Backbone:
């Protein structure tokens, strides 16, 4: 059994192992792969709610940009959109 710690300290690992043993918790190596409905190929499938949110956001943004282009306001919309500060603690990724 391997217990991962944030610091990688062996004493922390021993404390965690002792805590589990004190509570008489039975552990198995690779328990997720032994379960009936979990497999390595299906564990990374996106949540259906996430998929719906992404689809709705794409639909709304397509509609908004079409309306803004129709009223010749897309440049102003893009300028305002670019001025919105990022959510605090959220990392921006570059596609370069």
Residues:
């Amino acid at each position: 059994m391997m217990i991962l710690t944030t610091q990688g300290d062996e004493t922390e690992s021993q404390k965690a192992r002792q805590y589990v043993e004190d509570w008489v918790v039975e552990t198995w190596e690779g328990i997720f792969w032994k379960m009936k409905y979990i497999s390595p190929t299906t564990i990374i499938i996106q949540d259906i709610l996430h998929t719906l949110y992404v689809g709705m956001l794409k639909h709304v943004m397509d509609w908004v940009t079409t309306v803004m282009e129709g009223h010749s306001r897309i440049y102003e919309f893009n300028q305002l959109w670019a001025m919105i500060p990022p959510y605090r603690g959220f990392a921006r990724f570059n596609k370069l």
User: Anything to note?
Assistant: The helical segments are 10-22, 31-34, 48-70, 74-83. Confidence is low (pLDDT under 50) at residues 1-5.
